[in-house]
């Protein structure tokens, strides 16, 4: 019996020692890994947009914190998929440690992600994903849910009967498709809400302005518009204000640029579905840095959205959400 107790004690000691030794190795591995500066290319959809500037600010903050040399790049126009593919291929040729990608084409980038996987270069997607299981981590808004919320809020504003329109920003982007799908799904449950027009502005504010102006001049019974990103929202708001239709047309917008906030304060925009691009950029670099150092990361992360209107815009929590400040 005494020998049995001694044997058990020895076994427990071995297990504890092994666990401590393993932890010590893991801890040292983490410390040595973080000391190694990693090169990460962050490829987004467009380089002249306030939304992506907020993504950059979050990514820049994370780069300082996680010892990253970041290159933030994009095509000059959002629908230039071939240019984004070229940028991605250049990153592969440079043999960067990881790539963060906001994909302009959900299907078109699939083969390139596969090439990165074969080269052991982890790919993290933010905002808009890729149809591939080789993506190391996907970080985005729940876009279907966000689109659904936008549709529900517009129906609350116009009532159970009415005529509405959608201005989306792309046909190939996953985020655009899912937001639109969320809107359409809600509309199917309200048969007396008529979708009389659906247009695409390709993240061009002027195009959104022209599309909205044409709608307003040609559909005098239009009650409301849902715009699915900041460029669509700003163009639509400008047209509504210019034609003096702020009280008649209900506008549900996306994102939170300073001009959108001004339109909200003036009553041109009725409500904004606000994302958190700063956090998206921050987590994109954080997960890319971890994956580049061989540390496991979450396969999927959904970033929260908030509904902002004139009644809650000045609450402390919403002000922090709308205007994130770097540390």
Structure description:
This protein is an alpha/beta fold and 327 residues long. The chain is 50% helix and 18% strand. It has helices at residues 2-35, 50-65, 81-94, 110-118, 143-158, 174-187, 205-218, 230-242, 258-266, 277-292, 316-322, and strands at 38-43, 68-73, 98-101, 123-126, 137-141, 162-168, 193-200, 224-227, 250-254, 271-274, 300-303, 306-308. A six-stranded parallel sheet has the order 2-1-3-4-5-11, with helices on both faces. Helix 5 crosses helix 6 and helix 7 crosses helix 8 (230-242). The protein is elongated.
Order of strands in the sheet with most strands: 2-1-3-4-5-11
Q: Low-confidence parts, pLDDT < 50 over ≥5 residues?
A: 1-32
Helix content: 40-55%
**Annotation, overall tally of beta strands:** 12
Cα-to-Cα separation, first versus last residue:
61 Å
Which class of secondary structure composition applies to the elements?
A: alpha/beta
Q: Mind telling me the C-alpha Rg?
A: 24 Å
How big a fraction of the residues is strand?
15-25%
Number of helices: 11
Note the run of SSEs as H and E.
HEHEHEHEEHEHEHEHEHEHEEH
Tell me the major beta sheet: 6 strands, parallel
Mean pLDDT equals: 89
Basic shape:
elongated
